[in-house]
Structure formats: structure tokens, C-alpha cells
Amino acid sequence: QVQLLESGGGLVQPGGSLRLSCAASGSISTFNTMAWYRRVPGKEREMVAIAYSDGTTIYTDSVAGRFTISRDNAKNTVYLQMSSLKPEDTAVYYCYAFSTFTGRAYWGQGTQVTASS
What pairs with residue 22 in β-bridges? Predict the structure, then answer.
């Protein structure tokens, strides 16, 4: 059983930056897909960014050019660098991992990000 632990959330002024980290209890090299999702109260969870094991990255349109996802297999950690934060980025951010080999998926507990003045 792999556990994902997010950190790095907090309160930041609009235009500011934060870096989220997702540390896995096991090797992330076995996961084809590592991703960040977010949820705003009253709305469905939304995909923010995906990093595949082949190096491909995908972003939702609203964060493209402002957010960067990266994975460090040596540290078993996935990062989400967020810049030029907007109030509409305020949400709970969740780390996600999926292995097509095992068919198993894992979620972190979430970390709150608030962009507000």
C-alpha cells in the first residue's frame, strides 16, 4: 500500500507562487501516471496537471503557462510549481498516482491552497 503525502499549501497573495510536494512512501517509478487534481467546495474534482513516466506533461487550460509539474523518481516525490496564482486557483489540491501495470490508483489527503489578498 503506497501512501501519498502532500505539503506546501498555504495562503498567498494573488500573483504569488507556491510549490506543492507529494512524497510517496514507495517508489513512484512504478507509476505511469502522477498527477495533481484540485477541488473547490460544491464542484467536482478537476485535473490540474499530469506527468507521465515517459516525460509527457499535460495541463488544464486555466493553469497552462503558470504551473509546472515535475517528478523526481530518486526522491519519490512529485512537485507542482504554481506561479502567478489567481483567486480562482483557491482549492484543495490532491496528489494522484496510477499504475497501468497493477491497475491500482492512490490519492493523497489534500493540501489547501488559498490565493487571496
Answer: 6, 78
The one-digit pLDDT tens for each residue of the chain (117 residues) are 889 999 999 999 999 999 999 999 988 888 999 999 999 989 999 999 999 999 999 999 999 999 999 999 899 999 999 999 999 999 999 999 999 888 999 999 999 999 999
Q: Nearest Cα to 113, choosing from 85, 78, 72, 73?
A: 85
What is the C-alpha to C-alpha distance for residues 26 and 33, in angstroms, rounded to an integer?
Answer: 14
Contacts of 67 (CB under 8 A, 6+ apart): 48, 49, 59, 80, 81, 82, 83
Taken in order 35, 26, 3, 81, the sign of the CA dihedral is negative
- Looking at residue 2, the DSSP 8-state letter turns out to be -
CA distances from 15 to 11, 83, 106, 114 (A): 12, 7, 31, 12
